[in-house]
Amino acid sequence: MSQRPDLQAKLRDMPHKPGVYIMRDRLKHVIYVGKARDLRKRAGSYFLPSRKLTADPKTRALIESVWDLEYHVVRSDAEAVLFEGRLIKEFRPKYNVSFKDDKRFLLVRVDLNDLYPRFSLTRLRKEDGARYFGPFAHAGPLRSTLNTMRKKFGLRSCRPAIPDEKDFKHCLDHVIKNCSAPCVAKISREGYMERVEAACEFLDGQSREWIVQVESDMRAAAEKLDFEKAAQLRNLLHDLQTTTKQMTRFTHKSLPTTIHPEADILALQEALRLPRPPHVMECFDISNISSTHIVASMVRFREGIADRDGYRKYRIHSTKGQNDFASMAEVVRRRYGRILREASARDENAEFNQESAGEAVARTAAGSRTTVPDLIIVDGGRGQLSSACKELHRLGLHEVPIIGLAKEFEEIYLPERPLPIKLPEDSGALRLLQRIRDEAHRTANSYHSLLLKRRVRESLLDEIPGISAARKQALLKRFGSVERLRKATAQEIASVTGVSPTLADAILESLAVK
């Protein structure tokens, strides 16, 4: 074993600046990630002689397990919060509790392609053509800034895709001077878009005039002894400065090397006794929170790192009701059946080959990212694993290694072993499996939530008299979603087969008030 680093020397080298510190055990695994306003003081407090006597059992166990220490300096406390959360979600340290769930930091979203864009909060960044700001570490100052920003720039906060006079009757923002009221043509689209661009510049931190004005008003109120107003402006100034402070967006490529994917891959090969290192792994998860939509996800890891271009999402069709085993069989059959068909299409001499299906795919995979992985992982125990194995055997892929990972006790099931195996909690191989399993779980749940939200929106059509199942299907096929249907004209809606001009007007009128 390598010689233990001099922790006291490392602590002396730490600056008195905000940042994130990372603790490792003797096997170089990350066991704790923490943030600090003052790195030297915070990290050094763990190693004071009195700490072992006063700390709780969990902290004492952490201190005794620390073998090495590293740190990363950031520009602000808020950046430290964002960096800490990103690292914990990525590497799941043993002694961290917070940030291990699927919750994310808030973002501000605005779609500049809308007729009258509105600013809203979200936690998920999508490739939908909209503009996103953030993430923001502090939700309170962000919400306060967004509400004040709407009033300052006269931006609408109502929800309709295209506000009109009907919405104005139920909205008092124009009356109390909080909105420029595009719904009653008080302002042109060009004038409204100028306000939106000014708000975007403010959120980007490019425009400081408003902050300077608030600070000036605060000082003026204090000089007039109006301390209540000065305190309100002081709080507003703090929220504005917190929200518009420049932040670094931490991506996977910008993260420090806190794990060793290569070492974890080799450890997994040894633990499972695989014939070759699992450079490419695919993991399946089923999400059937309700019987309305049963979906599955397949995530791919390449060299121990998520390969998001290889992710796939499935809607389960042939399985009725909540049946994890049958659902797992269906998605495995669809995934690898398609790979075999594509390989056969690439192989001109497929009908004369005597090789196995897996060998044929490997031989014809040159230049293609669609190939059989080195290891297949299914989220679940013996039942899910058996269902997946049967489909692989039917496809002729019986030589592909496959395992099941049961979440409750983190037990690993292998086809040829009657009893599961359990790896140590600090095993790099287990951490690698947990990361890919959790990513599959997150992807499946996100897709399930998306379909449920879409289902709720589509159900609005069921409430409109004259909309039959066939007409509803034709409308959704033509426009893609209820939101796009709202933006369409009556003439465009009437062009759909089976929809009369009268019904088109009724559809627009009904959707405008929902």
Secondary-structure topology with pairs:
Layout lengths: L6 H7 L5 E6 L5 E7 L2 H7 L5 H4 L2 H9 L2 E6 L3 H15 L14 E5 L9 E3 L8 E6 L2 H15 L11 H4 L20 H15 L5 H15 L3 H18 L16 H12 L7 E8 L7 E8 L2 E2 L5 E4 L8 H23 L10 H7 L11 E5 L2 H13 L7 E5 L4 E3 L14 H31 L10 H11 L2 H6 L2 H5 L6 H12 L2
Parallel strand pairs: 7-11, 11-12
Antiparallel strand pairs: 1-2, 1-3, 4-5, 4-6, 7-8, 8-9, 8-10, 12-13
Helix pairs in contact: 6-10, 9-10, 11-15, 12-13, 12-14
| CATH class type of the largest domain | Alpha Beta
N- and C-termini, Cα separation: 67 Å
Biggest beta-sheet profile: 7 strands, mixed
Quote the CATH topology of the largest domain: Nucleotidyltransferase, domain 5
How many structural domains are formed by the residues?
4
**Derived structural class:** alpha+beta
What does this entry look like structurally?
This protein is an alpha+beta fold and 514 residues long. The chain has four domains: 7-91, GIY-YIG endonuclease; 106-244, no CATH class; 262-442, Nucleotidyltransferase, domain 5 (2-Layer Sandwich); 464-512, 5' to 3' exonuclease, C-terminal subdomain (DNA polymerase, domain 1, Orthogonal Bundle), CATH 1.10.150. It is 45% helix and 13% strand. The chain is built from 19 helices and 13 strands. The protein has helices at residues 7-13, 39-45, 51-54, 57-65, 77-91, 139-153, 165-168, 189-203, 209-223, 227-244, 261-272, 324-346, 357-363, 382-394, 428-458, 469-479, 482-487, 490-494, 501-512; strands at 19-24, 30-36, 68-73, 106-110, 120-122, 131-136, 280-287, 295-302, 305-306, 312-315, 375-379, 402-406, 411-413. Strands 7, 8, 9, 10, 11, 12 and 13 form a seven-stranded mixed beta sheet that branches. It has a three-stranded antiparallel beta sheet with strand order 2-1-3. It has a three-stranded antiparallel beta sheet with strand order 5-4-6, with helices on one face. A hairpin with a 7-residue loop joins strand 7 and strand 8. Helix 11 crosses helix 15 (428-458) and helix 12 packs parallel to helix 14 (382-394). The longest helix is centred in the C-terminal third of the chain and has 31 residues, at 428-458.
